[in-house]
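Look over what follows to help learners.
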Amino acid sequence: MSGGFRSRTRRGDEQKNSPRGEKQNQARMGGPARPSRPPQKNRQPERARSVPGLDAPRLLAHEVLGRVRQDAAYANLILPKALRQWKITERDAAFTTEITYGTLRTMGVLDAVIADCSSRPLEQIAPEVLDALRLGAYQLLYTRVEPHAAVDTTVRLVEASGNGKAKGFANAIMRTISRTSPEKWIEKLTPRGEIAAAAFRHAHPTWIAESFSRVLGLGELDAALDADSERPTVHLAARPGEISGEELALMTGGEEGPYSPYAVRLESGDPGDLDPVRDGLATVQDEGSQLIARAVVEAPVEGPDNGRWLDLCAGPGGKAALMGALARIDAAHVDAVEVSPHRAKLVEQATRGLPVTVHVADGRDPGLGPGYDRVLVDAPCTGLGALRRRPEARWRKSESDIAELTPLQSDLLASALRLVRPGGVVVYSTCSPDLRETRAIVDRAVSELGAVEVDAHEFVAPMADVGDHPSVQMWPHRHGTDAMFFAMLRRPLDR
């Protein structure tokens, strides 16, 4: 339970707040402390300059936690913009990102520790105070930040949030946490039961660990949960007909993806700064998503392909854009259906210049005539396969979401099978490995709607270890992709 970051308090504050001052700090750090950079005036918004003893990274992290909690915002969308606005760069930006995403990702563990130390239930703690305690507890349990720095800055955050009367309460909790090692905390609070214990160790709700274990078994569960907490690499997709994956790798300094001919993987960086992305030659897209869009186009159909293709749930447009680029090469056309007007505009932006027509309609009854050769149903789902990309997502979701989504998923697949012509192909995909959203939906279409399942494994080659069924289940810990699922179905010629 360690990280790569140390205290970010200014040296003057460390000397003031530590009884033994700089010598104690050097001993803990294992050598002379690095000189702090001179403060830069007028670099952050006013709040960052008006709280004595508080650094901008912790202030911004606390602010982002509040927005995630209050506005149901996504940290991966608001934090990069906020870093630019606050002009936080380099190591400070990395530290801000680490404590923000880390706190959100491990919130279940942090809350268990805080609850064990608190004299009152968590729901009776002011939300701003609880956010500060979570940030502080994360630093104590998962990073190498000095304990006195984590305690002191947490108390200061509580005061800065307008909860000055809670300073003593916060100080007591933080000091109690700091007196026990992270390993001892995990040992003390880990629940009984193999799956529940694995879930707690890797900061997941138990129901998600149970969902994964139904597909993987217990042998790979720890690896799968651990992969959800690793920072994902950036995946780019070269636009077919414009640039090859090899050329994109040379232009960006990335590595060609092992499975998709269009994929390039980058270890880090802002893809928006890359010329090929700015020029529309490439987009950001998980390699698993690329394979699914490609499979729709490459699947063999019975009879001639008339070039009439359909993306039935197209927002925000990544798969529609890749299908559209391939359609341009094959002289085909893609109809892209999206029920949300806002997301439909995103599809239009993503497919500009391609043979794609966007329809704002409900995929269950889009008002389009049947007879499509190829249909993609990238169904709305819980998104359990992409938890690593949104650190707060695992705590927002509940198992009841699945029961709400599966009727919609079945209805969309049934609509696709009505719209595809006899002999045509439907690809059903989700970004979730939960069997209720994957195999159960496909098996129902086969048994009740007369669809014929086609072995999809050859369409992701050389990817292997994708499951025992004809469908494909990808995993971050096996393939480095999101946990994408897809199955390939054909409508028989006699139906």
